[in-house]
Amino acid sequence: MTMQSDRSFKTDLLRRDHATPDIKREVACWTKWEARSSEPFEIHYDRAVSFCVVEGRAEIAFTDGTKLDVQKDDFVTIEPNIRGVWTVIEPITNLYRYRDGKP
What whole-number percentage of the chain has pLDDT above 90? Predict the structure, then answer.
C-alpha cells in the first residue's frame, strides 16, 4: 500500500486532517512529545489518541498495511487496538491527548 499524499485521510481506525486555527488553540495546552531518532520504533495504541504535529515529519506504518505520513499542521486521531511503527523523517514535535472514550 502506498503512502497517502492528500492531507485528508480517514479509515475506521485513523483520521488525518489539516489543523485549523481553532484546533491549534485547543491543543496548545496538550502534552508535548518529541522524537529526534531516525531509528524506527513500534507503538501499540491501547487507547484512542489525538495529536497535532507542531513541527517535523514522520511516517507511521500500521500492521493492517496502511502507511500514513504526518507533518507540520496535521491533526491526527488514532483509535485504540492498533499497532504501528514510527519512522521519524525530520525531528518531530507533537501535542497529544489520550481520549479515553471521549469524542
Answer: 86
